[in-house]
Amino acid sequence: MIVLRGGNVYDASQGFEGEIHDIWIDNGLIVSPPEQIESFDAIDVSGMIVAPAAVEIHTHLAGQILADAHANCMHALKRDSAALPLPSEGAAGYLSLGYTTLFDAAMSPALSWKTHSDLHSMDIVDRGAFSLVGNHALLLEAIAGDDQRATEDILAWLLETSGGYAPKLVNPGTDMYRDQPGKFPTLDEPLPGWDITQRKIIQSIAKAAKTLGLPHPIHLHAAMLGQSGNWKIFVDTLLALKDYRAHLCHIQYYCYGEDQRGRLVSAVEKVIPALLENPKNTYDVGQVIFGPATAVSADLGLLRHLQGVMGGHLSVRRIAGEDGGGTLPLAYRAKNAVSAIQWATGLELLLRFPDPTRIFLTTDHPNGGPFTAYPQIINWLMNGDARHETLSQVHSAARKHTGLAELDREYTLSEILTMTSLGPAQALGLKDRGHLKSGARADIRCYDPSFDVETMFSAPSLVLKDGQVVVKNGIFMQKSHIGQTFVLNPTWDRERLPFIEQRLQSNNSIPLQSYGLGSQRHRKGYKVIKCNTKE
Amino acid sequence: MTRRRICPFCNCLCDDVDLELKGDFFSTLEPPCHLAEKGFSSSLSREGQALPELNNKSGPWVQALSHSEKLIREAHEPLIVLSGEVKFETQEKAVQLGEYLNACVDTSLSQAGAAIPSATNEIGLPKCSLGEMKRQADMVIFWGCDLTATHPRFLERFVRNEKKQKIFYIDPDSNDNLETAVQLRMHLKKKSVTLNDSLKEILTAAQSAKFGVFCYGQHLVDEGKETMTEVYHLIRELNSYSLWHGMDLHDFGNWLGAGEALSAKTGYCCSVRFSKDGYNFQPSDWSTEPMLLRKQTDLVILVGNPTWLSKNYLSHLAEIPTILLSEKRVSWSPEVWLPISQVGVHNSGTSFRLDGIPVQLLPVAPNGQYTTADKILDLFLGFFNI
């Protein structure tokens, strides 16, 4: 048994905002203070900020497309591992920032073997991946046939066979526009070759996710990412999901209006009411950071469009019958108007949205920039002076075309800690983390308090994973395999398997025995999270 | 009994093979494929190849492994070469061993000055799965390929479809592929160059195709980075007109898996040197070919037969201590030969199809008489308690 003695505890689930409490830990779990105990180890955290460890809800660290991204930047004798880390490096980087749970946001079922191979290399954290389903031919066939039962079964099969934690939709249905780069379909435009619309796809899969009782709902990368004026279709998308629960990702990229000349401006104020309308929805921001970045996405039309605009070498993998992915090096420049507006829009969104349990800090790593920039972003959120100083140094378009300059709100420490732990844990349906109540996993981070917020968040003094000290003063203490990969066991009609096998061969040209996890399924380190069909 | 199998012998990994076994042979194999027939015949009928050899003399495993351990422990500059003969799981373990030994680890992707990774790094490459090519392609170009030798069923299995697509071949024996690639690009940019009629026809068709695939083979890769870079540029520039993709048919076997195994650890698919400080990548220094030429290594561990090395380099191999893990004996003489089973015939494992899809191979005729490469790597790792 271990006790963390005398820390200033922050736990939004219990209303703690720095009160001094001891935290008792036994067998990897937080427990109530024992009445009698013979022996225990005490760790003195007096004076320290003690909070639940952070949870990353949307990052891109694993899988074949990341491997392609590495192949695109082999010119250096040594890679820039901060900008584009390997999966194991990424996990270590996150852990050193106090994150003990990570979710990779895009996994092609056909390539899930590779993603899970990478997830296993991230064995110092708990982790999972979201399965790309929005362009899967089998699922679209079921939806087009108005067969909701088949939609549920195929979605469940896809999640099970690929070891996915949630259904990820990336501009669903728009793979049909493959030969029309720059074409961005609307929510209600019939998709080429199919008698369905994007609205129908999103609603059908959201409904299926609800019926299956998935712990995390559809994770949606909406249409028209980054386009001027896209706020309208984004609001329409939110309205389309009003009867369901959804997580919409990197939403900063959807908060754009356009001025009279069609140029990018912030439309955050127009989007906020729609974001607040559905209390079941959660969001992550996708904050942009100045410097090099890498676009890693299944939105191939977007990547082709970006290459046309910005240049750079694009690598793409198209997979028959489902989402593939692509990668393109990018850079965001402080003196570039578009970059500056994107940067300011993300911060404006975070500052205008009032509820830290529903909006989460991400950079959509590596798309908006590396996750290692989180401390810098936190500083901008907590320190109005630092934010305004940076705003004064970037392209003036950020001041003219966004509402950031007029905002004085400063996030409290409690809000930052909630936004990075309780909020994402709840959104992911992980009831055992994100808080410090009895029964929670003892995943905890401790900071030496400092007015230099950026430095403080860069280097927690202690990180505990399952009650074991894994990072102490920046040094990794634990090298054995302590994390698990979260998977689901949704219920589906196994009688459908011969049909699935036949359609898979026809649509995807991949044998069933090779589709999905394959031999990865037999590895140790999986934890099944139950689906709650009663919810 | 006839059963549906996946053929492991080229990286098409055709999954529609109906194989009827009779004892240690097969009686029928459909659809016909000379590589599959040769491979299954040879692997199924292996006799008298279950014992390792030390300097060409057959002997017990204990002796061969003991000698291997001695060679590995004494080496100061070991080189581990991953080839396509073994499964991904074994290649992963070999990388793990290389990291521990502070060895150089290389794969076939370093050939011709790391032509393929260099071009990918510089230009990028759009790719598609074989299923996508089958369903969507209305034009396919083959350049520098020898399909009969490397991928006999590629056309029938993954190319020909109801679209009656246009298929073009650019002469694999041509010696001026670089010049041809440059001319095609110039013509595409409407610069005045002389292009022969057949190349003009190909380019015109390519500009109007909706979904094209450019398949390139060993003859092109052999020419090196400059040629591959021009070809990749061409593919990229054709994407201004329509969707074009590259497909690498330069070799068969699990060479993609080898690159993936090394890349998963380092981010680099070839030519990596591990050290106390981490690892570094430099094709000119730490690829197999230059290291052999400069006699820069005092032990080479070959995980799979390096069929991609030319005879010139094989003669260098004969001059230094070598440990070879392969199914069959080779023409040159390794110091230690450790015979291994064939994945997809005797044991299971993961191999990468030529479009990058990992495929689970199952044994056709499980045979405990043959040692797996995986087991040997486990023993090597066990020497050092890894």
General description of the model:
The complex is a heterodimer of chains A (535) and B (386). Chain A is 31% helix and 23% strand. With 535 residues, chain A is α/β, with parallel strands linked by helices. In chain A, helix 4 (137-144) runs antiparallel to helix 5, helix 5 (148-162) packs across helix 6 (198-212) and helix 11 packs across helix 12. Chain B is of the alpha/beta class and 386 residues long. In chain B, the strands form four sheets. In chain B, strands 5-4-17-16-15-6-7-13-14 form a nine-stranded mixed beta sheet. Chain B is globular, with a radius of gyration of 22 Å. Chain B starts with a strand and ends with a helix. The mean pLDDT of chain B is 91. Chains A and B meet through helix 1, helix 3, strand 16 and strand 17 of A and helix 4, strand 8, helix 5, helix 12 and strand 14 of B.
SSE order and pairing:
The complex is a heterodimer of chains A (535) and B (386).
Chain A: E1 2-11, E2 16-26, E3 29-31, E4 41-44, E5 49-52, E6 54-59, H1 64-71, H2 87-96, E7 99-107, H3 112-121, E8 126-132, H4 137-144, H5 148-162, E9 166-170, H6 198-212, E10 218-221, H7 231-240, E11 246-248, E12 256-258, E13 264-266, H8 268-277, E14 282-284, E15 291-297, H9 300-310, E16 315-319, E17 322-332, H10 337-352, E18 359-360, H11 374-382, H12 384-393, H13 397-400, H14 413-420, H15 422-427, E19 444-447, H16 453-458, E20 462-465, E21 468-472, E22 475-476, E23 485-488, H17 497-508, E24 526-529
Parallel strand pairs in A: 1-4, 1-5, 6-7, 7-8, 8-9, 9-10, 10-11, 11-14, 14-18, 23-24
Antiparallel strand pairs in A: 1-2, 2-3, 5-19, 12-13, 15-17, 16-17, 19-20, 20-21, 21-22
Chain B: E1 2-5, E2 17-22, E3 25-30, H1 34-44, E4 53-54, E5 57-58, H2 61-74, E6 78-82, H3 88-101, E7 104-107, H4 111-123, E8 126-128, H5 130-136, E9 139-143, H6 147-150, H7 154-159, E10 166-170, H8 177-188, H9 197-208, E11 211-216, H10 218-221, H11 225-238, E12 243-248, H12 255-266, E13 272-275, E14 278-281, H13 283-286, H14 288-293, E15 299-303, H15 311-317, E16 322-326, E17 336-339, E18 349-352, E19 358-361, H16 373-383
Parallel strand pairs in B: 6-7, 6-15, 9-10, 9-11, 11-12, 15-16, 16-17
Antiparallel strand pairs in B: 1-2, 2-3, 4-5, 4-17, 7-13, 13-14, 18-19
